[in-house]
Design the sequence.
């Protein structure tokens, strides 16, 4: 009897030993996998700390050559700056206008028909998956170099981003008023404008302002591929080694980004 | 008499797709100026009954006549028109919280106007006068401009009733309208429903409080397992009948 009581205990001890050994092997192999992944990443990126140190002198050199910023060139940069801001404004506003109907179709609680829901969801996924820079490359090819290509790129990407967020807001809204109005015999459009719109408007405004902030940053980048604005000036100045122009442009971009962030945060606090 | 009754339900049944039967062969009649309370424990089919009448659910069998019109087969525009003649309020007021009280009440009039009357400003001044009159009727004319989010539970429920009145309905369905109110506000809402019935409306009110039913209703209907267990004049309501509805839970 005592034997049979000891045996399960011993079995348990053995089982735990085995489990301990297994978990040790498990941990070691996890560590090996992590080291391997990191190692290959360092190899592929050709990471070389020595070269960074070596290049440090180059960086310092570029820094001195870009000082002081070419402030006298500021007037010439105003137009590209305005272009960058306007690409963001136009892209965001048209993006908002287009994403509202897409979001209504893509919100499972208000979509008029299932097939339309899937079409809208697919469209949103596609527009989001293609990065803004790729859209910009496509539109530069289609409509030529300049700000319009940039605005189009922002519109396409924004409809994807806003469409999804708007649809989520609509799906999360309080359906009580919608049911109450449907019961009064009000029509679809009336229910939409009297129950859905007032319920979701503040969230939509908040999301839109945030989108403008993001789009302004993107609109700087879009210039790199020729879609107009200040980014285009930045790339040109880099290519011509005009580092004092570069430092001026970086200061302008800094002001733009911080300014947009502050303004959009301020307005968001107002509407929410 | 039942030929001309305002609401006439015959053999109404509702079975859910999962096989559960919520309503079993319920028949009832309601005249204008009548307040009928429906009692029953949770799951007895009270709310399902109202939801079938309002066509939020499609009954699996039976007929519903509202002011002589068969409801169960109506679709689209005809259903909208029929719905506008019966109003429904629920446990929560379901107001648009960011809008004013008046803007909420005026939405009750939308069904009388075209689909494109989508902004409150597009509605004629007569409807605004009506909405204000409805607010006066529920005793809240003074707070017409206040935001709906600032109201107490009892006030919100009365605004919901005003919105229902703005439909100019002949029948009012109330699904546990006092369930989330404190006793004082509950009595106020019940008094209001009684007064509306006295002024000519037919009212069906689902309740959980037998005392309120006995005090304010003309007739009380008890539902048990989806079927009518009793239907008596409120004055003749017996405790034993009510207790049987709630099974062992009743004291």
Sequence:
């Amino acid at each position: 009897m005592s034997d049979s009581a000891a045996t399960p205990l011993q079995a348990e001890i053995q089982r735990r030993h085995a489990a301990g050994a297994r978990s040790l092997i498990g941990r070691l192999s996890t560590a090996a996998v992590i080291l391997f992944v990191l190692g290959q990443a360092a190899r592929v990126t050709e990471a070389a700390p020595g070269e960074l140190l070596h290049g440090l002198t180059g960086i310092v050199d570029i820094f001195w050559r870009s000082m002081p910023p070419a402030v006298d060139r500021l007037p010439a940069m105003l137009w590209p700056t305005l272009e960058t801001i306007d690409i963001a404004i136009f892209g965001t506003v048209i993006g908002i206008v287009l994403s509202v109907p897409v979001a209504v179709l893509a919100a499972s609680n208000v979509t008029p028909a299932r097939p339309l829901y899937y079409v809208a969801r697919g469209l949103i996924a596609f527009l989001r998956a293609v990065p803004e820079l790729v859209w910009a490359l496509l539109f530069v090819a289609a409509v030529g170099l300049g700000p319009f290509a940039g605005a189009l790129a922002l519109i396409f990407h924004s409809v994807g981003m806003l469409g999804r967020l708007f649809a989520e807001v609509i799906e999360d809204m309080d359906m009580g008023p919608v049911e109450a109005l449907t019961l009064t015999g009000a029509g679809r459009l009336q229910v939409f404008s009297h129950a859905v719109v007032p319920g979701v408007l503040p969230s939509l405004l908040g999301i839109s302002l945030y989108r403008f902030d993001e789009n302004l940053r993107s609109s700087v980048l879009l210039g790199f591929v020729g879609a107009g604005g200040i980014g285009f000036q930045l790339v040109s100045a880099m290519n011509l080694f005009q580092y004092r122009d570069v430092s001026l442009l970086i200061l302008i971009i800094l002001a733009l980004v911080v300014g947009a962030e502050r303004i959009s945060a301020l307005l968001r606090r107002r509407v929410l | 008499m039942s030929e001309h009754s305002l609401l006439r339900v015959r053999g109404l049944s509702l079975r859910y797709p999962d096989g559960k039967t919520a309503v079993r062969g319920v028949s009832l009649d309601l005249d204008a100026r009548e307040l009928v309370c429906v009692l029953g424990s949770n799951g007895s089919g009270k709310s399902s009954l109202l939801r079938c009448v309002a066509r939020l659910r499609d009954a699996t069998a039976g007929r519903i006549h509202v002011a002589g019109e068969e409801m169960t087969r109506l679709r689209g525009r005809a259903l909208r028109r029929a719905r506008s003649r019966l109003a429904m309020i629920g446990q929560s007021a379901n107001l648009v919280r960011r809008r004013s009280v008046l803007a909420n009440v005026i939405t009750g009039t939308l069904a009388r106007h075209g689909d494109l009357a989508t902004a409150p400003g597009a509605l004629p001044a007569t409807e605004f006068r009506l909405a204000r009159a409805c607010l006066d009727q529920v005793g809240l004319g003074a707070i017409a401009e206040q935001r709906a989010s600032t109201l107490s539970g009892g006030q919100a429920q009365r605004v919901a009733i005003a919105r229902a009145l703005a439909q100019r309905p002949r029948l009012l369905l109330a699904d546990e309208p006092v369930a989330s109110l404190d006793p004082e506000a509950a009595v106020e809402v019940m008094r209001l429903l009684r007064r509306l019935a006295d002024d000519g409306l037919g009212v069906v009110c689902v309740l959980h409080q037998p005392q309120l039913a006995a005090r304010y209703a003309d007739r009380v209907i008890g539902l048990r397992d989806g079927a009518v267990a009793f239907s008596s004049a409120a004055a003749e309501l017996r405790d034993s009948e009510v207790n049987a509805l709630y099974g062992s839970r009743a004291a």
Notes: The CA atoms of residues 105 and 159 of chain B lie 7 Å apart. Strands of chain B lie at 7-15, 21-30, 35-39, 61-66, 69-70, 86-89, 171-175, 202-206, 219-224, 227-233. The two ends of chain B are 38 Å apart (CA to CA). The longest helix of chain B spans residues 183-198.
